[in-house]
Design a protein that fits this description.
- Helices cover about 30% and strands about 25% of the residues.
- The termini are far apart.
- It has helices at about 5-15, 20-35, 70-75, 85-95, 115-125, 145-155, 195-205, 225-230; strands spanning about 35-40, 55, 60-65, 80-85, 100, 110-115, 135-140, 165-175, 180-185, 215-220, 235.
- Strands 1, 2, 3, 4, 5 and 6 form a six-stranded mixed sheet that branches.
- The longest helix has 13 residues, at about 20-35.
- The protein is of the alpha+beta class.
- Helix 6 (about 145-155) runs antiparallel to helix 7.
- Helix 7 (about 195-205) links the parallel strand 9 and strand 10 (about 215-220).
- This is SseB protein N-terminal domain-containing protein.
Length: about 260
């Protein structure tokens, strides 16, 4: 029996509350963020792939699994495949009239996702944040944000390993008296800023919250604003890449490896 995955849990929550739009949005968010193993008819040739297609009364589908073990169980023998994120796959299949056969016959999350739903997901993922510039007068602790948004931000930022040292959620007040909320990233990798802003935008979208409910900012660790963020804000720690441990041995301390004399 294979492990229960994030997609299994999101699918179960969606099935338990079929009228709950938030649960359905959360499932599609997990689908977009998951690595999926796509069955192929032959080994991939550079960037060219030929997905295994099958036709049923509900339409045409490709076969994907969120664990290699599930794919092997379904196929019963070694098969060629390629690993893609759900967001990449939805973009590839959008407009092709092809849906996803997800974890068929191998998991609680076994289901057919129609082509129309994939098109919606691809379109939704293309909605990016808008850049605005405003002068902030002060930061204060965040208030009034729903728990499901905090959970979504925590899950989304857990996938952004190494892109920033930390993020802080604060309430804000502008110089003209306007109030809002900001997620401030500290020491973000420069090339990753747009990806981080998009991740926050997606967390809002898939939580059913208007994009304008939360702004995103980027700060260096030595800025006074970063210190103010840390004092007032709710901290989110982004996973950091593990540095390899190199054990340094003093020359001559290992009797099996005497020092080299020159």
């Amino acid at each position: 029996m294979t492990e229960t995955t994030a997609l299994d849990a999101a699918h179960a929550a969606m099935q338990a509350a079929p009228q709950d739009d938030t649960a359905r949005l959360r499932f599609f968010e997990r689908l977009a963020d998951s690595e999926l193993f796509l069955m192929l008819t032959e080994e991939a040739q550079d960037e060219n792939i030929s997905p295994e297609l099958f036709d049923v009364a509900d339409g045409r589908f490709v076969l994907v699994f969120d664990l290699e073990e599930r794919m092997a169980e379904f196929a019963g023998c070694p098969v060629p495949y390629v690993a893609l994120s759900g967001r990449v796959l939805s973009g590839m299949l959008s407009g092709q009239g092809v849906g996803l056969g997800l974890n068929l016959e191998t998991a609680p999350s076994s289901m057919l996702i129609p082509a129309e739903a994939l098109g919606w997901l691809s379109s939704t993922l293309q909605h990016g944040p808008q850049e605005v510039r405003q002068r902030l007068a002060e930061f204060h602790p965040p208030t009034g944000l729903p728990d499901n948004l905090l959970t979504a931000l925590d899950a989304k930022l857990a996938t952004a390993a190494g892109l920033a040292s930390a993020a802080f959620l604060v309430g804000t007040k502008t110089e003209d008296g306007g109030r809002g909320h900001l997620l401030g990233f500290v020491s973000a990798v420069e090339d990753a800023q747009s990806a981080l802003a998009r991740a926050v935008s997606e967390a809002l979208t898939f939580s059913g919250i208007e994009a304008g409910a939360l702004d995103v900012g980027f700060f260096e660790a030595d800025e006074p604003a970063a210190t103010a963020l840390a004092k007032a804000g709710l901290r989110f720690d982004l996973p950091q890449p593990q540095k390899p441990h190199i054990e340094r041995v003093a020359p001559g301390s290992d009797p099996e490896r005497p020092p080299i004399l020159k």
